[in-house]
Amino acid sequence: MITAQDFVGKWAVSIAYGSSKLNTFISENVPQILAELFGVEMYEEWEADDTLYPELFEPFSYQITNGGNNQIVHSKGVDVMLKNYVYAIYEKDAHITATSGGNVVLNQEGGKPQTDSTATFIRFYNDAISTFRAIQARIKDNKDDYPLFKGQDKQTTWFC
User: Model confidence over 4-20: pLDDT tens digits?
Assistant: First the structure.
């Protein structure tokens, strides 16, 4: 799926001592997020045969009817979702330090209070959850095609 080498461009992260810490972080978090996306049984079925459900792994736009309203959902694909999710969680943990005065973003001058503008990881997290929800909307709209689906709902956030 994704590796530390995928974290370039807008996903670039500091891997000061090599990619082993990031790869460990990926291997710990990717199975969890995929199990939450699909449910454990559907994830295990896909893990045993990763050619299943290709339509869910590629970017798509999909129209659903929700309570009589037409809604279009957009998925950027599972790889982008995972990169956004891992980036958000990794960056949040890597740069934020809790202090008695609140969360601080570390820098060379000792830090500054965290604000929405310094918490770019929130945008990445919300983007990941947007794709997560689009994939689940497509699955729920086609329940017969995904009988093992038991995924968990996730919500976007304004602050982690």
Answer: 999 899 998 876 655 68
Q: How many domains does the chain have?
A: 1
**Hey, which residues does 75 pair with through a beta bridge?**
60
Residue 145, token pair as written in the block: 């095609």
User: Residue 78's Cα: distance from chain center in Å?
Assistant: 8
Cα distances (angstroms) measured from residue 35 to each of 40, 44, 57, 68, 108? 5, 8, 14, 30, 39
Q: Over the stretch 47-105, which tens digit does the pLDDT of each residue have? A: 999 999 999 999 999 998 877 889 999 999 999 999 999 999 888 766 555 555 555 55
Taking alpha carbons only, the member of 80, 72, 113, 83 closest to residue 96 is 113
Widest distance between CA atoms in the chain: 57
Please report whether residue 102 resides in a domain.
Answer: yes
129 within a domain of the structure (yes/no): yes
Which of 39-48, 83-92, 106-115, 121-130 has maximum average pLDDT? 39-48
User: Is residue 59 domain-resident?
Assistant: yes
Q: Which residue has the tokens 């939450």?
A: 36
DSSP reduced 3-state for 60 = strand
∠ CA 70-66-142 to the nearest 5 degrees? Answer: 100
Tell if the pTM clears 0.85, that is, is over it. no
